[in-house]
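TASK: fixed-backbone design
INPUT:
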């Protein structure tokens, strides 16, 4: 029975909370802006399918790098065949993009753009994931801008204000992305994947990461995004510590805390979100322990 759950966990639900969180905060900001608030449950499901398709497509083309970095093993160790992974990727994209168009044209277009970004991120000869600025731009656009705008579009049409309000999230996502590439520097070098961390080294990247959080915090204050400002201000000292100490432990901690604080901010507006996060964490821990004997994921 647990083996069939491989097809659920291969889409990496542990990576969904940052996307869900930004989507919910975009939904909340547009509700406050427009005075309308439609239920975000359906779009959360569709975004999960879309993000899952992007993550799975990335694994299909990133098996060697994942094997070296010992990050993922569903495809690398043959638990799921490449053929089945491709079929699952197609279904996930169809089940996300088509229903999005039935909700609204703007949402459908956002989902289509998200799919295209995911395609260019993973598939040769584009392979943005292996290019210093390509991987960075993909993450800030897909996980920062599009996630926020997806939530926003559930209550209000896209506009210049929506782009402006998404900027702090884009910068914050950029900082988190940069931090996640640092522990993988050696593995990425051996597999030929050139991230900004590989190109510039840890010292420059952690400095840029802190700078991006500082900009995000300042912008959120200027546009009066109070939930984001508080969460960002709380995590800013940890990014500063990471930039000064340059130790992987501090860098990883700042990343985890940024996700945690922003998730708490979203949960304050949508209390049921806490239930999803807690149950998801507990079920994921149970699955990895029962299936592979691993204590994963961890809080800190």
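OUTPUT:
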């Amino acid at each position: 029975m647990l083996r069939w759950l491989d097809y659920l966990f291969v889409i990496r639900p542990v990576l969904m909370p940052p996307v869900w969180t930004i989507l919910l905060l975009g939904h909340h900001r547009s509700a406050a802006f427009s005075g309308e608030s439609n239920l975000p449950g359906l779009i959360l499901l569709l975004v999960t399918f879309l993000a899952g398709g992007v993550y799975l497509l990335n694994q299909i083309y990133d098996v060697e790098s994942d094997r070296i970095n010992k990050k993922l093993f569903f495809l690398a160790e043959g638990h799921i065949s490449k053929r089945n992974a491709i079929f699952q990727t197609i279904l996930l994209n169809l089940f996300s993009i088509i229903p999005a168009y039935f909700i609204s044209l703007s949402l459908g277009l956002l989902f289509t753009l998200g799919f295209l970004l995911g395609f260019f991120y993973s598939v040769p000869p584009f392979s943005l994931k292996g290019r210093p600025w390509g991987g960075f731009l993909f993450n800030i656009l897909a996980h920062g801008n599009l996630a926020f705008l997806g939530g926003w579009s559930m209550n209000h049409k896209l506009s210049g204000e929506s782009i402006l309000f998404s900027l702090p999230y884009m910068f914050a996502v950029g900082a988190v992305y940069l931090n996640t590439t640092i522990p993988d520097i050696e593995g990425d070098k051996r597999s030929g994947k050139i991230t900004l961390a590989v190109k510039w080294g840890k010292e420059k990247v952690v400095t840029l990461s802190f700078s991006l959080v500082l900009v995000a915090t300042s912008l959120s204050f200027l546009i009066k995004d109070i939930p984001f400002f508080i969460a960002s201000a709380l995590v800013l000292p940890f990014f500063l510590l990471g930039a000064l100490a340059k130790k992987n432990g501090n860098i990883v901690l700042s990343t985890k805390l940024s996700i945690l604080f922003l998730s708490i901010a979203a949960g304050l507006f949508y209390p049921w979100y806490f239930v999803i996060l807690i149950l998801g964490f507990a079920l994921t821990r149970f699955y990895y322990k029962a299936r592979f004997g691993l204590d994963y994921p961890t809080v800190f």
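COMMENT: The chain has a mean pLDDT of 92.
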